[in-house]
Amino acid sequence: MAPLLEVRNIKTYFHTQDGIVKAVDGVSYDVNRGETIALVGESGCGKTVSALSILRLVAEPAGKIVSGEIVFNGIDLLKLSDTEMHKMRGAKISIIFQEPQTSLNPVLTIGRQISEALEFHKNMSVHEGMQEAVHLLKLVGIPHPERRIYDYPHQFSGGMRQRVMIAIAISCQPQLIIADEPTTVVDVTIQAQLLELIRNITKDLNTSLILITHNLGIVARYAKRVFVMYAGNIVESGSALDVYHYPCHPYTVGLLASVPRLDEPRKIRLQPIEGQPPDLIFPPAGCAFQERCAYAIPQCQNEKPKLTEITPNHYAACWVSQKGSRPWQKS
Amino acid sequence: MTAPANTVVAERPHHTLWGDAWVRLRRNKLAMAGGIFIILLALAAIFAPLLTPYTFAKQNYSAILQGPSWAHPMGTDQLGRDTFARLLYGARTSLAVGIFTQFIVICIGLPIGSIAGYAGGKVDNYLMRFVDVMYAFPDILLVILLRSVLGGSIFNIFLAIGLVAWVNIARLVRGQIMSLKSRDFITASRAMGGMGRHITWRHLLPNALGPVIVSITFNVPRAIFTEAALSYIGIGVQPPTPSWGTMIQDGFGLIFAKPYMLLFPAIALALLMLAFTFLGDGLRDALDPKLRR
Amino acid sequence: MLRFIIRRVLWLLLVLFVVLLITFILMHLVPGGPWDREKALAPKVIAALNQRYGLDKPLWQQFLNYIGGVLHGDLGVSYSQSDRTIVSLLAHGLPKTLTLGILAFVFAQAIGIPFGVAAALKQNSAIDYASVLFATLFASIPGFVLGILLMIVFSVTLHWLPTSGWGSIQQVIMPVFCLAALPAAQTARITRASTLDVMRQDYVRTARSKGILESNIRVRHIFRNSLIPVITIAGPMLADLVTGSFIIENLFAIPGVGRMFVQGIFARDYTLIMGGILFYAFTIAFLNLVVDILYGAIDPRIRYE
User: Fold this and answer.
1) C250/B233 Cβ within 8 A
2) CATH code of the domain in which A90 resides
3) Residues A181 and A43 both lie in one domain
4) Under CATH, which number does the domain B36-291 receive?
5) Which residues of B touch A14 (CB under 8 A)?
6) Spatial distance between the Cα atoms of A76 and A8, rounded to a whole number of angstroms
7) Among B45-49, B204-208, C54-58, C141-145, which stretch is predicted with the lowest mean pLDDT?
8) pTM for the complete prediction?
9) pLDDT in tens, A159-210
10) Measured in Å, how far apart are chain B's first and last C-alpha atoms?
């Protein structure tokens, strides 16, 4: 079965007064029908930009997708006309943004903001749309939805607003949902609720999900496959189990090590990854992670490693792994 | 892990807040043009005696109402005074008004706004009520009233205009300080033991200053215009002190016969105000830390 | 909502009172009096006039009498215009001033908003640069300087338009244009800045991610938010126009309230001055109140405070 979405070698650059920022520099991943994948990395690594590129929501004129293909259901989205792209957004592919505080129009009722997509894609009248909005709010767990559709965003808490965003995203039953750090700005208890909600909904509707996050703690439970991004490139990809138990890239190792764990004694210090991500305008020659890497060999400084298969379906862009050794593996 | 010697490490240059602002300002051609014009005009006004043999008051009854000529590059008025000379000396008046009114505005508005902003509570309440009342007056009319009370010397004109204009600055400063007060870096500063007044001076004022500077730059042309308007109506500076507004009034009666008498001061006024506005715009863009391109 | 309005109305009345008080005091600080003439009148005549108009009473009493009169709708009699009541004078000048102000306001919005929006939507295009340039130009040149320049061109040189009077379309064009130029420019600038700001907001991106039509995004998401600041300044702008028109009135010899007021100051015509200030202060405060109420209707965040 062909994947639902294939992102092929996408490059998205931003033109700024200081130079060209290569936010996404040759990234490829894919999502199968009904599957949840995770796109993991720290802030600024390009994961959000790659997701925005899928929907062609990158801010022009500064940002531009300079090359690559995004094949959805066999069609290259980058070749679609504006009108056709409009029909995709919200209907076949939708996105849940990170900041519920600012992602909703302050002067429109919640009900109207949910029904907008329905009015456009499903030709519903405003009234019908509002009715459906009530149903959707119930689905995402907002009490008294018949009243709440007439309320405004500022009357909702952060967690509730994120539920509204989820309702908007699923309103037209899309085939693919992109969730960009959906729980980063809410507190931990709400995080768990929201993630369960997203998981249940995608299961019920058999929707594919791209879960973008920097929090490795949540990835294992929700995603089947993981793509780790660093400085605009994918540095490791594989099944969640493989990547967790047998990481093939020092960055992934670092990410895993920095997750606080309940099963370790509190005295053990958190282990951050030393150093800073590289400058995306003047990226270093060789491996982008090399300066912060405890396992670097001379080759890492000179040549940029390519994503290669280390074990079946488990890829990594690391010279050390490709030579067959994994000095970070304890067992 | 340090970078080896043969790796190119490119760094972006760092600037200070003011340094950055200056660079941005320099890039703005209109603002620079405005600034240069103002400086040139100021120099011309200061060195007026070198630029023209006439004074603004010298009357020459044998050369009344002449058009532009070699002797009088901009013609003469109904009393035989040289228009070019009056324009130059009138520039002194305009620039003086523009600048000195701002001193008054700063001396009154800055402290009052700061106190209101920093103290908050009742003090702020009373001050802001007072500001509300001042706002109910149309600016120019209050200036006219004050001017009638105070008299016609140029210093009184400064006072009249300044006493009305400080209100806006006070409001602005208060707003700035209030919004800064609750910002995180003040809390951080307090946590490290900074005392009250120390906080205000070292932390609050430099940040509040940006919009205030811009506002003052915009205030200058308004003050210049107010003086010209007052003079045009007849209650500005008294003759023989030259003023572009008076020149406009003098020329108005002869608009059909000798339009150039009006033209020169009107254009001069327009250009000066344009220059300050361009400069003010440029300053505002330069000082805005959230620069949007 | 009602309590809000009542509180604001009471505040308005208090402000008016204080304004009148300050004006009264300032007025009496001005040297001279309403009876000053080129050739001084005999002291007996002055005393008789003062007595007739109640000017011999102590100041505080004069003031209270005046306030009493105002509450009854009696604004007194003009000292310089042969006993015409202030009310009738205001009534005479008001329509002209109001028409001038309102026409200028409509013109300013009708030009300013579309240009500002167009400039923002097509940023860095020809229309953007042209709008910004014109807006800056007209925002800097004061109305009366513009008036003079226009007069020189259209009246003196081309003889197309008259320089004074009020009534025919030719007489109306220049004053309205001069008065409206600055607010039009300001409106255009604010509209442009606000629209640019809103266009960058996250919720516009959310709207776009739903795939709805660009026109719907513009109207429902962009404009509904970006026009809020424009409306906020519309009130004070209208107030400014109505009260600030007196220089234009002077320039174009339009017999409105402004001109009347300035003449009153020269003549030390106390009641005229007070009447003028009362009119102006009231107009400003009233229009501000209307805008505040409207603002609550438009922006739901304010409503629920």
Assistant:
1) yes
2) 3.40.50.300
3) yes
4) 1.10.3720.10
5) none
6) 10
7) B204-208
8) 0.78
9) 899 999 999 999 999 999 999 988 777 787 888 888 888 888 888 889 999 9
10) 37
